[in-house]
Write a structure and sequence with these properties.
183 residues
């Protein structure tokens, strides 16, 4: 891809988010924002699979030419992007997305948060925010499993499995090889 492509993608994601914020959650822009984030998530998964395959190919086919710093920085970039993208996906998917959650519409949750199981320790109107989904994404990428937030639906379970698999391949194969070739 050309270098400018990543800037266009970032702009395509940020513009609907900014417009949603400015227009006080205008319904057409909420749909556009959701579609863009879901499309970006799917494109990210496909791109990451290709990146990981390429890096594994480099590691196995050209081991003497492998540069440790390049592998470490690439694996860190993939891991951080993995956490951020899956956090955005979780945030957009759970209970119909942020707008549906904010409107208090009755929808089935994809994840069960601890605050929902112990109402005596949380405020009665508690709703998960993006930071809660970022925590979920970080824990899934780090522990390779659910921690205190439980997946309830099959799509939530499959997304968490996919995030864990990407993190596992990134850390075990790529980062481990980078550490091995450090001088």
């Amino acid at each position: 891809m050309p270098k400018w492509f990543s800037y266009v993608v970032a702009l395509a994601v940020l513009v609907p988010m900014v417009i949603v914020t400015i227009t006080a959650a205008n319904m057409p822009w909420l749909r556009i924002e959701r579609a863009v984030i879901l499309f970006l998530g799917a494109a990210y998964v496909a791109n990451t699979a290709a990146e990981l395959a390429d890096m594994i190919g480099i590691i196995t086919l050209h081991p003497p030419e492998t540069r440790a710093i390049s592998l470490l920085s690439s694996s860190l970039a993939i891991w951080v992007t993995n956490v951020l993208i899956f956090s955005l996906l979780y945030w957009q998917i759970d209970r119909g997305g942020p707008f549906v959650r904010a409107s208090r519409a009755s929808t089935k949750p994809d994840w069960l948060f601890p605050q929902e199981t112990a109402p005596e320790i949380a405020s009665p109107d508690w709703q998960p925010l993006f930071l809660d989904y970022l925590f979920l994404g970080y824990n899934t990428a780090t522990a390779f499993s659910p921690t205190d937030i439980l997946p309830l639906t099959r799509r939530a379970k499959m997304l968490m499995m996919l995030e864990s698999a990407i993190s596992l391949l990134t850390l075990v194969i790529v980062a481990a090889r980078a550490v091995n070739v450090l001088p």
